[in-house]
């Protein structure tokens, strides 16, 4: 019986120690409970009395300088023999007809943008997307390059869709 009482006492002591350790770990000194502020905290350098003995050195407090900026990145040339496309594909007859239809309506996109938008329109039509959905996406595409036309993005989207239907999606 004495052995059982000793085991119970030992087990209770272990549990109490573990509980104290867990509770102590959840103390109030945690940084998670502090409220961050957007203000910088600064301290003033200690004031030194002026003396003429020459041993005291004075240090000027300077304001922080602006961060150094890196020069703009320049694209590196592709090494010879690098796998993958080396440039843009030559425009096909459909590309040229699509670009001509856009230019006739006053839209002059880059060939890459025109191919991308025309390709989206044709794929969306093939997949059965609704005209409203297609118009929404094309309007967003056209709106990212407002320099290509003086038309409003919604009007330019209509031109893109009609031009793609008649020249590109065949």
Automatic annotation (TrEMBL):
InterPro entries per UniProt: DUF732
Low complexity: bias regions: 30-71, 83-94
Species assigned in the record: Antrihabitans stalactiti
Protein name: DUF732 domain-containing protein
Coiled-coil segments on the chain, per record: none
Cleavable signal peptide: 1-18
Keywords in alphabetical order: Signal
Bias-annotated ranges (Pro residues): 72-82
Spans annotated as Disordered: 28-94
Boundaries of every DUF732 domain copy: 94-169
């Amino acid at each position: 019986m004495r052995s059982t009482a000793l085991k119970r006492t030992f087990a209770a002591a272990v549990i109490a120690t573990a509980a104290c350790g867990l509770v102590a770990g959840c103390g109030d000194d945690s940084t998670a409970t502090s409220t961050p502020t957007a203000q910088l905290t600064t301290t003033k350098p200690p004031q030194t009395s002026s003396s003429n003995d020459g041993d005291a050195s004075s240090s000027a407090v300077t304001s922080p300088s602006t961060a150094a900026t890196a020069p703009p990145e320049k694209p590196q040339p592709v090494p010879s023999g690098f796998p993958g496309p080396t440039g843009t594909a030559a425009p096909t007859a459909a590309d040229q007809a699509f670009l001509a239809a856009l230019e006739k309506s006053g839209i002059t996109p880059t060939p890459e943008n025109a191919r991308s938008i025309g390709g989206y329109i044709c794929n969306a039509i093939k997949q059965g997307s609704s005209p409203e959905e297609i118009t929404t996406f094309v309007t967003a595409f056209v709106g990212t390059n407002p320099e290509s036309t003086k038309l409003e993005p919604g009007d330019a989207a209509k031109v893109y869709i009609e031009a793609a239907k008649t020249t590109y999606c065949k």
